[in-house]
User: Fold these one by one.
Assistant:
Number 1:
Amino acid sequence: MFQTSKYDGEEKIDLGVISVFICSILLSLGGFIAIIASSCRRSRCTNVGCCGVSCVRDPVDDLEPGI
């Protein structure tokens, strides 16, 4: 799965490849969370529940179009 390199006769996993893989996963999760937060902000619901947590909120009336 990961590229390996030979160093002193032993095969070792390239840390550069692993770090790029981990960064791409974290950036994808951050984008997903941003999309969910944006859709919650635009929603008109007063009772919001997600993952076992719920709250009552006042929806914002003056949302800018196109955001």
Note: The mean pLDDT is 77.
Number 2:
Amino acid sequence: MTADHKDYALKQLENFLYDAMSADATAQEIYDVIKGVVEDNYNVYKNATQKAFELHALLNGIGVGHISDAISRGNKIHQAIDDCMQPWGHSDMEALKYTDEEMDAMSSAAEEEEELISKGYFKENGSWKKPKIWTVEIQMDGLTGDAIIPIPDEVADIVGWNLYDTLEWIDNKDGSYILRKVTK
């Protein structure tokens, strides 16, 4: 938002308040409208943030099978925000005021968490865990010419695959694939 737009918006707000008071609106009616607008705006951004958080988790490979963990983390963040919000009705809206130190700390914490998430880190039992990446060489079957992707034992153990499990190969149409155990 440019300074001109901000000044214009604040002037419009001032004019609307003068109009409302001139129209004999009660203090309670004006308060209820302002409170409603703030709450609506908060809920819109809260919902948009939740959707963006879920999409970000999927894009960073936390997705299928783990998205519920990501959503749970997002819900805990939103609950923590909600818990910090004091009840409405404070005359100076002191519930929305933070010291510069508090704002800096919250901003730094959010930036650190965002950076960790963007690098694929995830939280487990309250601490950040680094994602594990395995690199394997594709092998060729000498008899059939089929390509073979050896799956490391550690990966098989983590996802619960066994030697004779049937796996489904799903093309995501974006250069990535999902291997999923076929259940009968």
Note: The radius of gyration is 26 Å.
